[in-house]
Amino acid sequence: MNHQKKIQALKQSGTFNARYKNIKDPAFQSHDFFDPMDLIQVKYEMLRRVTQEHHSITEASNAFGFSRPVFYKTKDIVEKKGLAGLVPQKTGPHKASKLTDDVMATLVELKRQGQTILQLKDSLKTLFGLNVHKRSIERALKKGARHDKKK
Question: Full-prediction pTM beyond 0.85?
Answer without folding.
Answer: no
